[in-house]
Structures are given as C-alpha cells and as structure tokens.
Amino acid sequence: MSSPAGPGAEDAPRQTPLGAGDPEAPEREDVSRPARDRAVEDFARRSGLRRDEAGQLDVLSAVGGWRGLLESLLPGLVYLVCVVVTGQLGPALTASLAAAALFTLVRLVQRQPVTQALGGLVGVGICALFARVGGDALDYYVWGFVTNAVWLLGLAASALAGWPLLGVLFGYIRGEGTHWRRDPVRRRAYQRVNGVLLAMFAARLLVQLPLYFAGDVAGLGITRLVMGAPLYAAVLWLGWLWSRPRPAPPAG
C-alpha cells in the first residue's frame, strides 16, 4: 500500500540521518506490506467471491452456483421431511447423510472439485453426530448455532480491528486492494455493510434459538433453510450495492 503523499514520501524516511531514528523501520514496513497484501489476496480468492462479466458481484458463484446451492439445501430439506413424516431420527439422519454423500460422489465421478460438497458432507456429519449423541431431532441444528456465533464474533472482531471482513473481500474483487482503508468514506461504507452481514448472523440466532428451546423442529428446520444460503446471497448483494464507490465528479 503506497503512501497518500505519493512515491516521494516513501523515499523521505531513507534520507533521515543515522541517529535521528531507526533507519531499518521503513525497510521492515516495505517487507511486511507485500506479505500482508498477499495474505489478504489469498484469503479473498479462496472466499469464492468474484465479479461477473458485467462487473457486478456474482452472487450465484458465491454460494457455489446452482449445484452448490442445491448441495447446501437438499440434505437439510431431506432431514426435515423425514423427521416430520416418519417421526424417527435414525432414517432421517441416514437420508441426510446419503444426500450429502451422493453430491460428493457425483463430483468425484465427474472429476470436478469436491471441496464444497465434501465440506457439506462433513457439516452434515457433525450435525448428525450432535443429533445421535443428544438423541433429539432438534440437536441436528446445534452445530449451526455454533458456526453462526463464531462468524458473528469474527465479523465483530474484524470491524473492531479496522479490517471489516466484507471490506477485505469486496476491496479485493473491486481492485481496491487495501487502499480503501486510507479513505474515510470507503472505510465507513465497508464497516456499514460488514455490519449488515454481522446482523444476518445475529438474526439467525435471535430467530432460531427460541424455536429450538420451544421444541419446534418443523419451524426451526424451515427457518434454517430460508435463512441459510438464500439469505446469505441476498445480504451479499445488498452489501455490494450499498458499498459501491461514488462516481468521480466531472472535471472542471
């Protein structure tokens, strides 16, 4: 990240006489900046967020495309239907795990990346483990409360540290890098949309935890599906629009 004053400002510290300061400090800063930027870029690339041909956020890609959306929703839907129809935990867990495993197997056969499907399978396996150990159909949803709480705390910590997570991601795919942190307007915009994503995770807990404690399996299952990938995609799109850079005023 270059200095706001331009290239000349970066050279100025190197002209400081010995004894007037630490002459090695600028060198250490120059080394750390690229390393930090590479880490940010790598993190943003792995997030799956990218722009489409029109230059807008590719929301569908953010949830893994239509197949990824199906992979995230179907195991939970199968579990819910089986629990409501049969009233038995064992068959519901088996059907849910089978659906997640089938997606992974299909990707393997088609020689496609299995990261998302495998991650979904592991997630369903953890949910099934909670339900099996707890012996209650409601316990299938406990792991989701944990992950939502972790994301909420992570987003809050990133905002307090001055590196709002959504700003890091959007800044990368917009080509802003980390330079937006030097612009108070852009920094506020990214803090604002990061807060919207944080509010989504908080809303999930506020809506779903009472259903869990009320023992409402059907209500909890339905809200978990609706407030899952579809809501996440909608919040990302809203955040993208709300954080758009203002057009530069015409010259003169």
Describe this structure in words.
The protein has eleven helices and no strands. It has helices spanning 7-11, 25-46, 59-62, 65-86, 89-109, 115-134, 142-160, 165-173, 184-214, 217-226, 229-242. The longest helix is centred in the last third of the chain and has 31 residues, at 184-214. 70% of the residues lie in helices and 0% in strands. It has one domain (59-242). It has 252 residues and is mainly alpha-helical. The chain is globular and about 65 Å long. The model is unreliable at 1-30 (pLDDT under 50).
Tally of DSSP helical segments: 11
**DSSP, total strands:** 0
Level of helix content?
over 70%
Q: Strand content of the residues, in percent? A: under 5%
Low-confidence stretches: 1-30
Global shape: globular
Q: Give a short account of the largest sheet.
A: none
Order of helices and strands: HHHHHHHHHHH
Structural class: mainly alpha
Mean pLDDT: 83
Note the gap between the termini.
29 Å
CA radius of gyration is 23 Å
In total, how many domains does the architecture comprise?
1
Biased composition (Basic and acidic residues): 25-38
Protein name: DUF3159 domain-containing protein
Region (Disordered): 1-38
Keywords: Membrane, Transmembrane, Transmembrane helix
